[in-house]
Amino acid sequence: MQSVFTIGDLANEFGVTLRTLRFYEDKNLIHPRREGQNRLYSRRDRLRLRLILLGRRVGLSLNEIKEMVDSYELRDGSPARLRTALHRFSAQVERLKRHKEDVEQAIGELGNTMAVVAGMLQVREAEHRAPMLEAAE
C-alpha cells in the first residue's frame, strides 16, 4: 500500500479541492510534511482526512471533528477522554436521528401538498379545455 500521498492524490481520491485540503491543514486537522513547495501526506493524514470528511457529512463542527480525530488517534487515551468522545458521538447520533425525522415529516407534508396542487392543476386544465372544445364544435 502507498505510504506517501500528494495533495492531488488525496484531492482525487476523496473528491475534494486542493483548497479544501489546505484549509484543513490551516486548521491543524492534517499535517503534511513539506519538500520544497510540495505537500506530502502520510497514511495518518489520509485517515484523518477520511474522518474529517465523515464528520462534515454528519454535521459535526470543525472543533468537534478535531476532537474526534484526536481521540481516534489516541488508542491509548484515558478512559475519561474516550468517555467524552463516546458521549459526543452519541449526542450527534441523536441530533441526526431527530433531523432525519424532521426531514421525513417534511417530505410527507410536501408529498401531500404536491397531490393537492396536482389535483388543482387537473381541474384548471379541464376548465381551460372545456371552452376550447365548445368553440371547436
Question: What do these coordinates show?
Answer:
- The protein is mainly alpha-helical and 137 residues long.
- The chain folds into 2 domains: 1-73, Orthogonal Bundle (Multidrug-efflux Transporter Regulator, Chain: A, Domain 2); 93-137.
- Helix content is 74%, strand content 8%.
- It has 5 helices and 3 strands; from the N terminus they run E-H-H-E-E-H-H-H.
- It has helices at residues 7-14, 18-26, 43-57, 62-73, 79-136; strands spanning 4-6, 33-35, 38-42.
- Strands 1-3-2 form a 3-stranded antiparallel beta sheet.
- Strand 2 and strand 3 (38-42) form a beta hairpin.
- The protein is elongated, with a radius of gyration of 26 Å.
Q: Descriptors for this entry?
A:
mainly alpha; about 140 residues; 2 domains; Multidrug-efflux Transporter Regulator, Chain: A, Domain 2; elongated
Give the structure's gist in a few sentences:
This protein has about 140 residues and is mainly alpha-helical. The chain has five helices and three strands; from the N terminus they run E-H-H-E-E-H-H-H. Helices cover about 75% and strands about 10% of the residues.
